[in-house]
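Reminder to self: tokens first, then the designed residues, so the page reads top to bottom the way the pipeline ran.
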């Protein structure tokens, strides 16, 4: 099983973040959390790294369905989406969305595979939308 779905964009980091937020929103996801890993590591450890942002994306109807099946599934929510600079290719940004099937791997709750499949479909669509957009 793959940990997630990935695409690369030839654009700036800020543009990739904005486009990712829009693609997620178009699929019914809101961003509940945002972790700026670069800033956090610099502040806490005085370590430098590339731009690296973790967006905690949530599709409320899907989250509600999953929590209705298994309350502990909240431990795996929200769906993380990473936007990060490609350290090997200047001007390239990598966007990765978690694979919701991971939820299915940790519980055998009936009905959860259907929710994971729906979430996967929406996250794949968001990644596909990023691949089809043209940088401004």
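Designed residues (136 positions):
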């Amino acid at each position: 099983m793959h940990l997630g779905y990935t695409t690369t964009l030839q654009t700036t980091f800020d543009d990739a973040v904005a486009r990712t937020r829009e693609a997620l929103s178009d699929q019914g996801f809101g961003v509940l959390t945002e972790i700026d890993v670069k800033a956090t590591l610099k502040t806490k450890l005085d370590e430098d790294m590339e731009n690296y942002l973790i967006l905690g994306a949530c599709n409320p109807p899907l989250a509600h369905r999953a929590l209705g099946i298994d309350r502990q599934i909240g431990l795996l929510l929200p769906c993380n989406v990473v936007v990060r600079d490609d350290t090997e290719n200047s001007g390239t940004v990598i966007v990765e969305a978690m694979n919701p099937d991971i939820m299915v791997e940790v519980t055998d709750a009936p009905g959860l595979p259907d929710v994971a499949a729906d979430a996967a479909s929406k996250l794949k669509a968001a990644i596909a939308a990023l691949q089809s957009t043209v940088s401004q």
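The chain has five helices and five strands.
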